[in-house]
Design a protein that fits this description.
About 50% of the residues are buried. About 40% of the residues lie in helices and about 20% in strands. The protein is globular and about 60 Å long. A ten-stranded mixed β-sheet has the order 2-1-3-12-11-4-5-10-8-9, with helices on both faces. Strands 6-7 form a two-stranded antiparallel sheet. It has a two-stranded parallel sheet with strand order 13-14. It starts with a strand and ends with a helix. The chain is of the alpha/beta class and about 350 residues long. The protein folds into two domains: about 190 residues, Isopropylmalate Dehydrogenase, CATH 3.40.718; about 160 residues, Isopropylmalate Dehydrogenase. The protein binds nicotinamide-adenine-dinucleotide, 3-isopropylmalic acid and manganese (II) ion. Belongs to the isocitrate and isopropylmalate dehydrogenases family. LeuB type 1 subfamily. Pfam families: Iso_dh (PF00180). InterPro entries: IsoCit/isopropylmalate_DH_CS, IsoPropMal-DH-like_dom, Isopropylmalate_DH.
C-alpha cells in the first residue's frame, strides 16, 4: 500500500471540531482506496502559543516540511487579540508556515453547489453554476513587506507602517499559475490590482501583460481595478473564471465571494509552493462566536482535504468522490450557516455523518 505522510494542524476555535470530521473522511479513504495515511498532529496558533510561547515551533515546522501534505483548521481568537507583538499572535504561526514553505500560490475556488443556490444572499440566477477560482499571491505583498511597525514620531504622536512590495519575479510566478489554471478551465483571467494609485499595481499590470503576450496569448486576459472587481463580484459574479490578485486584495475579494456560495463555511483553499508539501486550509477563521458548540460547518475543511488529495497526493479520483459526497449530503443535511426550510438541521458531526453516508 501507498503511504502518505499527512500533517494535521487543527489550530484554535472551531479548528479541532472540523478537523475531527476530516479525520473520519480520511479513515474512509484509507478503506476505500487501499492507501494508508501516516498522520502527524501539531499545534499552530493560539494553542501553540499557550503551550510553547510561540504560535509555530521549529519542531512543528520541521515535521510539516517533511510531510506530503498539511491540512490545517484555523487560528486566532479574541483571547489573543490584545497582543500587539505580531510575532506572537496566532496569525503569525500561519504566516510563518506560508513563508517558510514559500507557499506563494493560494487557490481559492468559489463554487456554488446547486443545492445551495438559494442559500446565497444574492438571487439564485446570479449564483447558480458559479465557478470562480481565485489565484491569490500568498508569500509577499503588504503582509511581509519591510519596513513595518509602529513608531513614535519625533514631534510626538505615532505612526503605523506596512509596506506593499512586489518584485517582477514574484508577480510572474503567480501570474503563471493563474494562466495555467485558466487553460484547464474557462480560459479567462481577470488580473485585479490598483495600477491607478500604486506602483506595485502598475508593475503587476506590466508584468502580467508581458507574460501573457509572450506565453499565454491563447488565454483571454482582462485587467480590472480591485475596487471595481469587488463591485462586479456582487453585480455579475458569473462573468469571472480565474481572478489573479495579490495577497491583501485576494484576502478581501475571496471572503466577499464566499457569500455568493452560501457560506464562508463552504470555502476550501490550497496553498502551493514550488516542490514542497502544500498546505490545505479553509478560507474561514476560528469562528469564536460559535466555537465549542459543535455547530460549525466542516465542509470547507473537508473540501480542503479533497484539494490535498488532488494537488499533493495524486488521488484525484478520491477528491472527486469526496466532492460528490458533499454535494449529495447537502440535499438533506445542513448546518446552521446554510440551513433552510425543509432540510434537517445538523451539527458538525451530523454533517460529517451525512457526508460519510453519501460516500457509502
Ligand atoms: P471567521 O471566519 O472566523 O468568522 C466570520 C463569521 O463566519 C462568523 O460569524 C463565524 O461564525 C462564521 N463562520 C466561519 N466559519 C464557519 C463555519 N465553518 N461554519 C459556520 N460558520 C462559520 O472570521 P473572524 O470572526 O473575522 O475571525 C475570527 C478569528 O479567526 C480572528 O482571530 C482571525 O484572525 C482568525 N482568522 C483565521 C483564519 C485562518 O486561520 N485561516 C482566517 C480568517 C480569520
Ligand atoms: C486567511 C486569513 C489570514 C490572512 C490571516 C488569519 C493571517 O484571513 O487565510 O484568509 O489574512 O491571510
Ligand atoms: Mn481571510
Amino acid at each position: 500500500t501507498t503511504t502518505h505522510k499527512v500533517m494535521l494542524l487543527p489550530g484554535d476555535g472551531i479548528g479541532p471540531e472540523i478537523m475531527a470530521e476530516v479525520k473520519r473522511v480520511m479513515t474512509w479513504i484509507e478503506g476505500a482506496y487501499g492507501v494508508s495515511f501516516d498522520v502527524s498532529e501539531g499545534l499552530i496558533g493560539g494553542c501553540s502559543y499557550e503551550e510553547f510561547g510561540h504560535p509555530l515551533t521549529d519542531e512543528t515546522l520541521a515535521r510539516a516540511k517533511a510531510s506530503d501534505a498539511i491540512v490545517m483548521g484555523c487560528v486566532g481568537g479574541p483571547q489573543w487579540d490584545g497582543k500587539t507583538d505580531y510575532d506572537k499572535r496566532p496569525e503569525a504561526g500561519l504566516l510563518r508556515i506560508r513563508k517558510e514553505l514559500d507557499l506563494f500560490a493560494n487557490l481559492r475556488p468559489a463554487m456554488c453547489f446547486d443545492a445551495l443556490a438559494d442559500a446565497s444572499s444574492l438571487k439564485r440566477e446570479y449564483v447558480a453554476g458559479l465557478d470562480i477560482l481565485f489565484v491569490r499571491e500568498l508569500a509577499g505583498g503588504v503582509y511581509f513587506g519591510e519596513p513595518r511597525g509602529i513608531e513614535d514620531l519625533p514631534g510626538g504622536g505615532r505612526v503605523g507602517i506596512n509596506t506593499q512590495r512586489y518584485t517582477d519575479a514574484e508577480i510572474i510566478r503567480i501570474a503563471r499559475v493563474a494562466f495555467e489554471m485558466a487553460r484547464k478551465r474557462g480560459n479567462k483571467v481577470h488580473s485585479a490590482e490598483k495600477a491607478n494609485v500604486m506602483e506595485s499595481g502598475l508593475l503587476w499590470r506590466e508584468e502580467v501583460t508581458k507574460l501573457h503576450a509572450a506565453e499565454y496569448s491563447d488565454v483571454q486576459l482582462e485587467h480590472i481595478l480591485a475596487d471595481n472587481c469587488a463591485m462586479q463580484l456582487v453585480k455579475n459574479p458569473k462573468q469571472f473564471d480565474v481572478i489573479l490578485t495579490d495577497n491583501l486584495f485576494g484576502d478581501l475579494l475571496s471572503d466577499a465571494a464566499a457569500m455568493l456560495t452560501g457560506s464562508l463555511g463552504m470555502l476550501p483553499s490550497a496553498s502551493l509552493g514550488s516542490g514542497g508539501p502544500g498546505l490545505y486550509e479553509p478560507v474561514h477563521g476560528s469562528a469564536p462566536d460559535i466555537a465549542g458548540q459543535g455547530i460549525a460547518n466542516p465542509i470547507a475543511a473537508i473540501l480542503s482535504l479533497a484539494m490535498a488529495l488532488r494537488y499533493s497526493l495524486d488521488m484525484g479520483d478520491a477528491a472527486d468522490a469526496v466532492e460528490a459526497a458533499v454535494s449529495k449530503a447537502l440535499d438533506s443535511a445542513r448546518t446552521g450557516d446554510i440551513w433552510a426550510e425543509g432540510f434537517e438541521r445538523v451539527g458538525t458531526t451530523g454533517m460529517g455523518d451525512a457526508i460519510l453516508a453519501a460516500l457509502g
